[in-house]
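Researcher: We plan to redesign the surface later, but first we want a full-length starting point. Tokens attached.
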């Protein structure tokens, strides 16, 4: 855990707003687990971000706990990484407020996710939704992160993080490490099965999303129903969004290249291909689900882990926060 060999720092988080999806797994969690070998990793449950959209308290609490179990089942190892709850580390909210004062309205107005979310939640466009990227900047900058694995849809927030950090460093002196976003190419974006031009989303209610806890039957059925084209050939090509997506999923799990997949399914129809994709997905998730059940049965273990992780995170975060407080000129009567 000690950063003695100056390992690079990685920070990332997912909102515990529901059950995580196959997209979260292939695009994020699985890579996070790999990164633990080479980096000093902080993996957070971004629960402060979650309340920008109304939650049912009892469900929200439960989702948070389940998401922690899913992190563990996906291979996040608390011996190697710091796994923590954002709401247990007050420095996130504290730094976010300071950074709010160093972020321009114009910058926030340009955020496409805000524009998108405010059309989807028209009756509830709250201030938190608007300043969401600033909280995200605080998450990242508190840990002096070098690398931030994110989906492509978050790159604009990362750009804002860098701009705000650079602005702050210039106004005072070197305070924040300037982080870099890391999107991985395969599996970076798993699309919806029913609308393959849209990202696979936790909040989608239809059959377009495979959840990490879906049973084999459900997985097979959703993939069988996945929208495809009428060309009938398993081949990666522009415009074949549905097939491209299934090929990406198959490739991410089996490690096979698109060329390999094309030869494997040459002369076969979409039915055969979908059945094969269904099998590998169900198999991969099945292994994970047994781990998940094992963790879910040990509530005390997960709770202890979250407490310890959040304490460790707080220690690091507080150091950055006190630097910031000093630089902006807050009076400290204890000094
Ligand atoms: N906004 C991210 C998402 O919705 C989640 C997130 C919150 C995050 N804080 C972060 C990701 C910090 C990376 C780093 O996907």
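Model: Full-length starting sequence:
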């Amino acid at each position: 855990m000690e950063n003695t060999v100056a390992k690079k720092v990685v920070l990332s988080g997912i909102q515990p707003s529901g059950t995580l999806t196959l997209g979260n797994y292939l695009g994020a969690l699985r890579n996070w687990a790999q990164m633990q070998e080479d980096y000093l990793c902080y993996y957070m449950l971004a629960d402060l971000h979650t309340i920008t959209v109304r939650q049912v308290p009892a469900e929200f609490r439960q989702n948070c706990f389940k998401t922690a179990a899913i992190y563990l089942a996906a291979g996040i190892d608390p011996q190697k990484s710091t796994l923590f709850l954002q709401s247990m580390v007050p420095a996130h909210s504290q730094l976010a407020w300071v950074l709010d004062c160093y972020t321009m309205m114009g910058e926030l107005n340009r955020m496409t996710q805000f524009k998108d979310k405010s059309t989807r939640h028209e009756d509830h466009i709250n201030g938190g939704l608007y300043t969401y990227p600033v909280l995200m900047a605080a998450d990242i900058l508190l840990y002096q992160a070098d690398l931030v694995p994110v989906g492509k849809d978050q790159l604009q927030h990362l750009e804002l993080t860098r701009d705000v950090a650079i602005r702050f460093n210039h106004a005072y002196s070197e305070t924040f490490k300037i982080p870099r976003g890391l999107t991985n190419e395969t599996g970076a974006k798993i699309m919806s099965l029913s609308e393959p031009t849209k990202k696979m989303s936790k909040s989608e209610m239809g059959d377009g999303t495979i959840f990490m806890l879906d049973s084999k039957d459900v997985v097979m059925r959703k993939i069988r129903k996945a929208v495809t084209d009428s060309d009938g050939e398993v081949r990666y090509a522009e415009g074949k969004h549905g097939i491209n997506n299934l090929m990406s999923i198959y490739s991410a799990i089996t490690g096979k290249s698109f060329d390999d997949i094309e030869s494997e399914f040459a002369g076969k129809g979409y039915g055969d291909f979908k059945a094969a994709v269904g099998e590998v997905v169900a198999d991969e998730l099945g292994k994970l689900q047994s781990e998940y059940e094992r963790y879910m049965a040990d509530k005390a273990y997960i709770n202890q882990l979250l407490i310890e992780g959040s304490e460790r995170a707080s220690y690091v975060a507080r150091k950055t926060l006190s630097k910031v407080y000093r630089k902006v000129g807050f009076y400290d009567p204890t000094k």
